[in-house]
Specification:
Elements (H helix, E strand, L loop, with lengths): L1 H7 L10 E2 L3 E7 L9 E10 L4 E8 L6 E5 L5 E2 L8 E5 L2 E7 L1 E9 L10 E12 L3 E12 L10 H13 L4 E8 L9 E6 L7 E6 L13 E4 L2 E6 L12 E6 L5 E9 L14 H15 L6 H13 L5 H31 L13 H19 L6 H6 L12 H15 L7 H8 L4 H24 L1 H5 L7 H8 L1 H44 L4 H24 L14 E2 L5 E4 L2 H9 L4 E6 L4 H11 L2 H10 L2 E6 L5 H9 L7 E5 L6 E2 L6 H8 L13
Parallel strand pairs: 12-18, 20-22, 21-22
Antiparallel strand pairs: 1-2, 2-3, 3-9, 4-8, 5-10, 6-9, 7-8, 10-11, 12-13, 13-16, 14-17, 15-16, 17-18, 19-20, 21-23, 23-24
Helix pairs in contact: 3-9, 3-10, 4-8, 4-13, 5-8, 5-10, 6-13, 6-14, 9-10, 13-14, 17-19
Length: 702
């Protein structure tokens, strides 16, 4: 964003080369005196850094930010990625950063198109941004320009550029070492990692491994190493995301004569997993856990509104034949499985494409939340008898009594799809591990696990439909069903209200205003349709057209919520909760810093659309007993809000083999993290914190 703002207000800024800020002098150099069409041109971003200050490598370590460049280039000219020579280890108290002191050199390759006119110069502009730190950090930027002449062949090397280009190349990897392995050694204490690298050269005097991404290892931990049977064996301490971080990085060695070298590593990772992750599940166990989780999902509060529809559907089956009931049950099950299959296929496809999404991702998009609020309002109005809807939606809302179209298979199918849609974001016990395991598998077994979850959700309804003994216990249809149908409208309205609250967390007041206006338009359209339904053909057509226009406006307003931005921190951010419990927003850096200080940490990964999460907070976390335990143990409480997409939280969940919320993890000082159950009580939370609580303190009752 700062780069975009700089480019937006270019008239108030001057392009120059070099540019001197308070702490850095930045310049853009070309290796040769001219470029040639169809040939690459090598450039170098040079940052001359004030003494005692430093900038950062591509993985800054425990804190910091890597430099970035946004290019403005002539048509057809392209720029490659910014290069990063190997960094130095910069210790900051108990933490460690990877960066550069004195001078940072970042090479980049410019590709000139083959049809570039010879003699026409290249006007190259770079908006560079970097973070420079000492005891505090200062974000700085520069607008650099460089005009490079062109000729038929590349020009001679510019003498003024020879030394910095040579220094930059000396810091880049001299090659790639194949056959390196990052593994957990059999006798490792507390689940340490070992990097094993083939080595044929002289024994180095010093060895260091710099991971390319945050979280793979503890950056500040020592890296003891030895040479054994033609391999360098480096012992590493796992980081906060070692289970899913990409093991990219460089190996840096220093010879006895002081000569430094770096090598890229072609790594295999046969068994790397964080010490806190559960052991891998087998496919059979994962299928069973998913099915059991689906069964329990029927009892979760997030599925209650659809349970109301299912209860009405079961009551309506009281007067049907066995064949008709079985058909209803199979159609309902098909609706659940088709929706679960679609959502699972989309989830797996997005993850295969590199998107950081997890289970329940559909409710991370405000237009989807707005659309569901519309749907539950319409269902509630239909159940209450305020509007009369025909076809599938009428049957979905229980809008007909026995003998009407509400017993059609299509209506049962769409009721099952709605149940799956509402249940998908929820996480029941046994589901978390199965879902996390599923996304690590190939497509077919992953889909099998996710469909097993749907089968568990549908099983009770299917069982009652297919077993005559259970069907005979159903009440007979009667006039009482109309009262029940109207009563069940209120869970629909409550769900719509909850979804609007979720939207307020995602989008702030602007999004809420859009959807409330959309609900008004939708209600007006339904009322208009109802008023004109029994009129003359022309009046009925006019009413239908006006209702469709109102629906179109409502849907357009729902789409606009995607562009709304909250004006305040989200509900799961840092705040003071009931009974004085104080939380901070989760960031990987904050967790790492607290762990380095030796402070106990409790991490709560939650989302506004996860009712299980909200119930746990109300009945367990936001209680006097838990607040007192946190205070006595001086426990840092970190909350990660997954209401909107957040790649850092998705990565954290994956590190524990999970793919959805809630997730509760306690980090005792100096020990492996402990994962708590997905259903909490005050006693279970206090018991998990017991190592940090002074003795002779009573436990709360369940």
């Amino acid at each position: 964003m700062p780069l975009l703002l700089i480019l937006l207000f270019l008239p108030w800024f001057a392009w120059a080369n070099p540019v001197t800020t308070e702490h850095v002098t930045a310049r853009l150099l070309a290796e040769r005196q001219s470029a040639a069409p169809g040939q690459p041109a090598e450039l170098l971003l040079v940052l001359e850094i004030r003494p005692h200050w430093h900038t950062y490598w591509r993985n800054p370590g425990d804190s910091g930010e890597a430099p970035r460049v946004e290019w403005t280039l002539p048509a057809g000219v392209t720029a490659g990625p910014l290069g990063f020579p190997y960094p130095e280890l910069i210790r900051v108290g108990p933490l460690a950063n990877y960066g550069y002191s004195g001078r940072a050199l970042h090479p980049v390759t410019i590709q000139v198109p083959a049809d570039w006119p010879v003699g026409e110069p290249l006007a190259l502009r770079a908006a560079a941004q970097w973070l420079v730190c000492e005891e505090f950090c200062v974000p700085e930027s520069a607008l650099l320009d460089l005009t490079l002449p062109t000729a038929a062949v590349p020009g001679l090397t510019d003498p003024a550029s020879a030394e910095p280009f040579a220094a930059a190349r000396a810091g880049l990897p001299t090659g790639t070492i194949a056959g390196a392995v990052l593994d957990i050694p059999p006798a490792a204490a507390s689940g340490g990692l070992r990097l094993s690298v083939p080595w044929t050269g002289p024994r180095p005097a010093e060895v260091w491994y710099f991971p390319g991404v945050w979280g793979l290892i503890d950056h500040a931990a020592p890296q003891p190493w030895r040479e054994d049977a033609g391999r360098l064996l480096i012992d590493l301490t796992p980081g906060a995301a070692s289970g899913q971080a990409d093991p990219d990085g460089v190996l840096v060695t220093r010879a006895d004569d002081g000569r430094m070298q770096s090598f890229a590593l072609s790594l295999t990772v046969p068994s790397v997993a964080p010490t806190d992750a559960a052991p891998p599940l087998g496919l059979a166990l994962a299928l069973g856990m998913a099915f059991l989780g689906g069964l329990i999902l029927n009892l979760m509060p997030c599925v209650f509104p659809v349970l109301a529809i299912k209860a009405l559907g079961l009551a309506q089956q009281g007067g049907l034949s066995t064949a008709a009931r079985v058909g209803q049950g199979l159609a309902y099950t098909a609706g659940v499985l088709v929706f679960f299959g679609l959502i699972a296929g989309l989830l797996l496809a997005l993850r295969a494409g590199g998107a950081a999404v997890g289970w329940g991702f559909q409710l991370q998009y405000p237009p989807v939340v707005a659309g569901l609020a519309y749907l539950f309002l319409v269902l509630g109005l239909s159940l209450a008898g305020a509007v009369t809807l025909g076809g599938r939606l009428m049957g979905l809302a229980g809008g007909t009594l026995p003998g009407g179209r509400g017993h059609g298979l299509a209506e049962a199918f769409w009721t099952g799809a709605l149940a799956a849609l509402v249940a998908a974001p929820c996480t029941a016990p046994f589901m978390g591990a199965a879902l996390g395991y599923a996304v690590t598998l190939p497509w077919l077994p992953a889909l099998a696990i996710l469909l097993s979850l749907g089968l568990g959700l549908a099983a009770p309804f299917l069982l009652v439909s297919a077993v005559p003994f259970l069907a005979r216990r159903l009440p007979r249809p009667g006039a009482w069903m109309d009262t029940l149908k109207q009563l069940l409208a209120f869970p629909m309205f409550a769900t719509a209200a909850w979804l609007i609250w979720v939207l307020s967390v995602q989008t702030g007041p602007t999004g809420v205003a859009l959807v409330l206006t959309g609900l008004l338009m939708l209600s007006f359209g339904l009322w208009l349709r109802e008023r004109t339904a029994l009129g003359a053909d022309r009046r009925r057509l006019a009413g239908g057209a006006a209702a469709l226009a109102a629906l179109a406006v409502a849907l357009w307003l729902a789409v606009l919520t995607a562009h709304s931005i909250p004006v305040a921190p989200s509900a799961a951010g840092g705040s003071t909760h009931a009974n004085g419990l104080v939380s901070e927003s989760y960031t990987p850096e904050r967790l790492a810093a607290a762990r380095a200080e030796g402070r106990p940490v409790f991490v709560n990964m939650t989302a506004a659309w996860c009712i299980t999460c909200l119930v746990n907070e109300r009945v367990a976390l936001d209680t006097a007993a838990v607040a007192a335990a946190f205070a006595r143990g001086q426990v840092l409480y970190l909350k990660g809000d997954w209401t909107n997409r957040d790649a850092a939280i998705t990565d954290y969940l994956a590190g524990f083999g999970r793919n959805g919320v809630p997730l509760y993890v306690f980090y005792p000082p100096g020990e492996a993290p402990r994962v708590l159950p997905q259903i909490l009580t005050p006693a279970s939370v206090v018991a998990a914190l017991s190592p940090t609580i002074p003795p002779n303190q009573s436990q709360p009752e369940e």
